[in-house]
Design a protein that fits this description.
CATH architecture of the largest domain: Alpha-Beta Barrel
Strand content: 15-25%
Bound molecules: flavin mononucleotide
CATH superfamily of the largest domain: Aldolase class I
Number of domains: 2
Distance between the termini: 48 Å
Helix content: 25-40%
Number of strands: 18
CATH topology of the largest domain: TIM Barrel
Largest sheet: 8 strands, parallel, barrel
CATH class of the largest domain: Alpha Beta
C-alpha cells in the first residue's frame, strides 16, 4: 500500500505506527483475528476486556440491534454484550504471543475487576506478560463488576479515583488508561479525579446506554430475548457528536492524554476526534460492519489530508480545533447573516420553504409555477435550518451581509 508519510503518533510515551487502533470489542476477542488485523496494518489493539479467573461472564444472545436510517443500515449499533468470556490466563498468553510476533505493534489489554486485589492482580499479570498499555473499563453499559449494581464505575468520581489509584499503584512499567463514560453531568470533573488517582490517560469514551427501539407488533424492545429486552450500549456514527464533545471538554479542562473512541467510521471522523484532542483513535463498529480492510482507506485518507493541508504529522492535528470552541455567551451576536439559494442547484423540492414556514421565520416563499425558493432577507435571521434540511449539499449558502 502506498504510504505518503510517517503517520506515527505517540500516547503516554508509546509509539503507534499510525493513529488507528482496534477498540476492546469482538474484533479483538480472538488471537487469530488480532494477528490478521496487525498484518493488514492496524497499529495496535485493545484486547477485549478480561477479568480474573473466577469471575462469571454470563452472555445473552441475540445481543445486537441497530438504528437504521432510510438509506443506511447501522447508523448506530446497539449491543448487550459483556466483557470477554476469556479470563486473564488466556489473555496473558495472547499478549505474550502477540508481542513476540509483532514487537512493533501496540498490544493493550482491557481489564475489569471488582475488589482491589482483582484489579491489581490483573495489572501485574498483564505487565509481566509484556503488555504495552492497560486500559481499565470504568464504563461497561451493563454496569461495572462489584460497584453499585447497574451503575458504571465511571459515573462516580470518588470511586473512579480510588480504583485508578489501585491500578496505578500496581503498574510498575506500563501506562494506565481509564475508559470513561460520557453519561455524566460534568465529564471534566470526573476525569480530573481520575487524573488525581494517577491515571496516565483516558479513553473517551465508551458506548452510550440506550433503548434501541420497540417492535410495534410484539411491543418488545430490541434486541428481543424471548420476550424481554434490556438497555443496549449504542456505538457507531450516531454517537460521534457525543464523543467529540466529550473529548473537547476534557482537553479544554484537564491536562491528560486521550485515546478517542466512539463513532469513528472513516478517516474524516478520525481526524475530527484528533482535532478536538485525541492522540489516536480506536474503532469498533466500523470494523464490525466493514471488516479490518478499512485500514487501507483510513491510512490513505489521513495521508492525503495531511499532505493537502500541510500537516507534517498527525500529531499536529491534536486539539487544533479547540480554539474554535467557546461557551455560548462568547459567540459573536451578528444579525447580518442570510440564506442564499442557488437556483441552478435547486431541485425544487420545497423542503426549505416548509421547514422555514413551520419551524423557522417564514422567510422563504415558494413559487408555485417555477417551484423555486425565494428568500425574504428582511425576515431571514440566518438560523441555517433551510441549509440543514436541503437535500442538495451546497445549494443553500449562508452569507454575511
Ligand atoms: C459488541 C461490542 C462489544 C464491546 N465490548 C467492549 C468491551 O469488552 N470492553 C470495552 O471497553 N468496550 C467494549 N465495547 C466498546 C468499544 O470498545 C468502543 O469503545 C465503542 O463501541 C465505541 O466505538 P465505535 O463507535 O467505533 O464502535 C464494545 C462494543 C461493542 C459494539
Amino acid at each position: 500500500m502506498y504510504r505518503y508519510r510517517d503517520l506515527s503518533v505517540e500516547l503516554c510515551g508509546v509509539r503507534f505506527e499510525n493513529p488507528f487502533v482496534l477498540a476492546a470489542a469482538p474484533p479483538t476477542d480472538e488471537l487469530d483475528m488480532v494477528r490478521r488485523a496487525f498484518r493488514m496494518g492496524w497499529a495496535g489493539a485493545v484486547l477485549k476486556t478480561t477479568h480474573v479467573e473466577d469471575a462469571e461472564v454470563d452472555l445473552v444472545y441475540p445481543m445486537m440491534s441497530s438504528v437504521n436510517m432510510k438509506d443506511r443500515r447501522v447508523a448506530g449499533l446497539g449491543n448487550i454484550d459483556l466483557i470477554s468470556h476469556y479470563g486473564i490466563e488466556v489473555v496473558e498468553e495472547r499478549v505474550r504471543s502477540l508481542k513476540e510476533e509483532f514487537p512493533e505493534k501496540v498490544v493493550m489489554a482491557s481489564i475489569m475487576g471488582s475488589r482491589k486485589e482483582e484489579w491489581q492482580e490483573l495489572v501485574m499479570r498483564l505487565e509481566e506478560a509484556g503488555v504495552d498499555m492497560i486500559e481499565c473499563s470504568f464504563s461497561c453499559p451493563q454496569g461495572s463488576m462489584g460497584e453499585r449494581s447497574g451503575a458504571m464505575l465511571g459515573q462516580d468520581g470518588e470511586a473512579s479515583k480510588k480504583v485508578a489509584a489501585w491500578v496505578k499503584s500496581a503498574a510498575k512499567r506500563v501506562p494506565v488508561v481509564i475508559k470513561i463514560t460520557p453519561q455524566v453531568a460534568f465529564i471534566s470533573e470526573i476525569v480530573q479525579m481520575i487524573k488525581e488517582g494517577g491515571a496516565d490517560a483516558v479513553c473517551a469514551s465508551n458506548t452510550i446506554p440506550s433503548l434501541m427501539g420497540i417492535d410495534l407488533e410484539t411491543l418488545v424492545p430490541y434486541p428481543n430475548v424471548r420476550g424481554k429486552s434490556t438497555y443496549s450500549g449504542l456505538s457507531g456514527s450516531l454517537i460521534k457528536p457525543i464523543t467529540l464533545r466529550t473529548i473537547a471538554e476534557i482537553k479544554k479542562n484537564v491536562d491528560i492524554p486521550i485515546t478517542g473512541t466512539g463513532g469513528v467510521m472513516n478517516w474524516k471522523d478520525a481526524v475530527e476526534l484528533m482535532l478536538v484532542g485525541a492522540s489516536n483513535v480506536q474503532l469498533c463498529t466500523a470494523v464490525m460492519h466493514y471488516g479490518y480492510g478499512i485500514i487501507d482507506d483510513l491510512i490513505v485518507g489521513l495521508s492525503n489530508y495531511l499532505e493537502t493541508h500541510d500537516f507534517a504529522s498527525p500529531m499536529q492535528l491534536i486539539g487544533k480545533s479547540l480554539p474554535h470552541i467557546a461557551s455560548h455567551d462568547l459567540l459573536e451576536r451578528n444579525p447580518h447573516i442570510k440564506a442564499h439559494v442557488d437556483d441552478d442547484k435547486c431541485v425544487r423540492c420545497g423542503l426549505c420553504h416548509i421547514a422555514c414556514r413551520d419551524g423557522g421565520h417564514q422567510a422563504i416563499d415558494f413559487d408555485i409555477d417555477s417551484r423555486l425558493a425565494l428568500v425574504d432577507e428582511d425576515k431571514c435571521v440566518g438560523c441555517r435550518l433551510c441549509r440543514t434540511v436541503c437535500p442538495v449539499g451546497d445549494c443553500i449558502s449562508m452569507r454575511y451581509l
